[in-house]
Amino acid sequence: MASLGELERAVMDLLWAGQEAATANKLRDLLAQDSAATDGIAGHQGKDLAVTTVLTVLSRLEKKGLVERERGTRPHRYQAVSSRADHTADLMHEALGSAPDREAVLARFIGSVSESEAATLRKLLGKN
Amino acid sequence: MASLGELERAVMDLLWAGQEAATANKLRDLLAQDSAATDGIAGHQGKDLAVTTVLTVLSRLEKKGLVERERGTRPHRYQAVSSRADHTADLMHEALGSAPDREAVLARFIGSVSESEAATLRKLLGKN
DNA sequence: TAGTTGTTTCTACGCAACGTAGAAAATGGA
DNA sequence: TCCATTTTCTACGTTGCGTAGAAACAACTA
């Protein structure tokens, strides 16, 4: 129960990027900006989402446990439950988790990691 | 384009487990066995899939690039394109890949790995 | 060569997830 | 009490997946 749709991911990216909790309206605006930027000079003909759309997505993300909502304030405020790094690491563990041959997987994983990342990993593991 | 459904995964598990390429019929039988075993003494009332079902799934897996089919022989023979370990490692890279903060992700990942696996990783990264 | 049988392809249905949003309800201020 | 803002409810279209029947196809036998 962890994979995200395109819009869900876009919203999470915004929540992860901003440090403050955001309202649905704020997020809608940011999404419009983003798509305008992506469309380039062509003019953002695409995506002006309805606020209800954003709210629906936020509810779904809340149900999935990725988003937390403050119900006290009137425009509710939404924020990511965990950082993107944490979430991504969780995903990696999830992929790894269901494998009966964890060591082999780790071997392959390490095998196809860039040298600089390998260095990072060595550092993190405490070199001994 | 990488996530698998339940049956798709069951089929891949069989292909990954067996060393030889298998036919659709063989796979159907193995699936029936598996579900019988899972059902325990209760009697495998559940899953006797039609061969066409297995064939459909195999086609979809082929389209996804996970399965390769020999069309020469009459009962076509199917096999996994890459090992489960490779595939899982790919998934991990995929999760990691889309992150702008790769180092942070790796840090979190390492942080929540068991000590024995950390040891494995150290060995694999071994400065040698 | 024509029938028979095993195999594959085509087509399709139901269900769940997701993008999308209108209609209606709720809430807080004028 | 009425209005504007915000949230909830409901819903529709699309896509992926489990599932399989019907039809096409290939190989063997009589």
Number of helices, counting only DSSP H or I runs of 4 residues or more of chain A: 6
Cross-sheet strand order for the largest sheet of chain A: 1-2
Radius of gyration from the alpha-carbon trace of chain A, in angstroms: 19 Å
> CATH-wise, what's the superfamily of the largest domain in chain A?
Winged helix-like DNA-binding domain superfamily/Winged helix DNA-binding domain
- Strand % of chain A is 5-15%
The rounded distance between the terminal residues' Cα atoms of chain A is 38 Å
Order of helices and strands of chain A: HHHEEHHH
Biggest sheet layout of chain A: 2 strands, antiparallel
CATH topology of the largest domain in chain A: Arc Repressor Mutant, subunit A
Largest interface: A-B, 34 and 33 residues
Percent helix of chain A? 55-70%
- The CATH class of the largest domain in chain A turns out to be Mainly Alpha
Given the C-alpha coordinates, what overall shape of chain A results? elongated
Uncertain runs of chain A are: none
The secondary structure category of chain A is mainly alpha
Which CATH architecture of the largest domain in chain A is right? Orthogonal Bundle
Please identify the oligomeric state: homodimer
Total of domains of chain A: 2
- pLDDT averaged over residues of chain A: 89
Give the strand tally of chain A.
2
